[in-house]
Amino acid sequence: DDLLPEHSYILSNNDSEELDNDIECTFASDGNEDSRDNVFTPLREQDRFLPIANVTKIMKKVVPENCKIAKDARECIQECVSEFIGFITSEASEHCANEKRKTINGEDILLAFSNLGFDNYIEPLKNYLKKYRQSVKVPTSNQHLQQPSDVEILQQIYYN
């Protein structure tokens, strides 16, 4: 199989039983499709995971005020949530590639949830996305309403 620029790959030693020996890398390209000088560069942890402060803030919203959340619990949830987002995004990205599109939109994310068996989340996500889009409409100089892209919406949700 061909490796695609700007995608993540897991390099694994098949002889090893340890998953910790896998190395996650991103395939860096100089932009030249014909170039054979492409290299693998390791992903930094902050590039792989959601910010721990954001994960902690969300976790604190669902536990009683007097509860403390252990560091290893926060880190575990951080890794799981990041993996889940990657799982959904990968499915949505594959759908876009099949349709020869480069931009993932909200409908692609909803379709990915459905394809992966997370049907219970679809209606709440549709409602949330609709309300969020309505709340972020900004008038331009022409007084027309301009909406941010779905990617900007997702970035706002996950990183704020």
From TrEMBL:
<dbReference type="InterPro" id="IPR009072">
    <property type="entry name" value="Histone-fold"/>
</dbReference>
<feature type="domain" description="Transcription factor CBF/NF-Y/archaeal histone">
    <location>
        <begin position="49"/>
        <end position="112"/>
    </location>
</feature>
<dbReference type="InterPro" id="IPR003958">
    <property type="entry name" value="CBFA_NFYB_domain"/>
</dbReference>
<dbReference type="GO" id="GO:0046982">
    <property type="term" value="F:protein heterodimerization activity"/>
</dbReference>
<keyword id="KW-0805">Transcription regulation</keyword>
<dbReference type="GO" id="GO:0001228">
    <property type="term" value="F:DNA-binding transcription activator activity, RNA polymerase II-specific"/>
</dbReference>
<keyword id="KW-0238">DNA-binding</keyword>
<protein>
    <recommendedName>
        <fullName>Transcription factor CBF/NF-Y/archaeal histone domain-containing protein</fullName>
    </recommendedName>
</protein>
<comment type="similarity">
    <text>Belongs to the NFYB/HAP3 subunit family.</text>
</comment>
<dbReference type="InterPro" id="IPR027113">
    <property type="entry name" value="Transc_fact_NFYB/HAP3"/>
</dbReference>
<dbReference type="GO" id="GO:0000978">
    <property type="term" value="F:RNA polymerase II cis-regulatory region sequence-specific DNA binding"/>
</dbReference>
<dbReference type="GO" id="GO:0016602">
    <property type="term" value="C:CCAAT-binding factor complex"/>
</dbReference>
<keyword id="KW-0804">Transcription</keyword>
<dbReference type="Pfam" id="PF00808">
    <property type="entry name" value="CBFD_NFYB_HMF"/>
</dbReference>
